[in-house]
Design goal:
Elements: H1 10-32, H2 38-60, H3 64-88, H4 96-118, H5 123-132, H6 157-174, H7 180-187, H8 191-200
Length: 201
Amino acid sequence: MARPPLRVDAVLVQAVIAGALSFAHLHDIAAAAGQDGWKAWAYPISVDLLLVAAWRRLRSGTAKAAAWCWFVIALAASLGANIATAGLLDLNQVPAWLRILVAGWPAVAFLGGTLLVHTAPRPDTATEDQEDAPDPEPLAQPAIEATPERPAVTVPAALVDHARKVATDHHTRTGTPIDTPTLRARLGVPAPMAEAIAAQL
């Protein structure tokens, strides 16, 4: 089976280029602010990780306010480095406020990452808690007493014929079938007998 030809995704290439440039700018700012050696390389990694953590929380749909807050903070750090290295800032004479921001960034990034991870329970943890919970005991069902069956009512044929005439007369006058209470009142019979007669009409 022939393998499909390799296709270059323009969006992916653009993302790699933008990420590499932003990474380099963050490194240059950190180095200019006095963070030399491996520390200068750790700063862009910290910013990118905070961006990814905030983006994942936004995609999950939980704690969106906190996710947007930390996403904007990390994005501001990245954009700030890009703008500062565009010739607007003398990297040989970095101002004190920028040194303070760079020095305080690790604590800010650690706080943001911790809050993003622990602001909401993980779905798998919630599922495990539900699985471990004991099944509730079934409520005792109240005993249902059997309704005693009524004895069969014997209706004379003559009474049934008379009831048919009454029902026909009622339908002719009102345009609606006669109901059992009305039939009972017209015939003057007990309710069980009226129901038995109505069943035969």
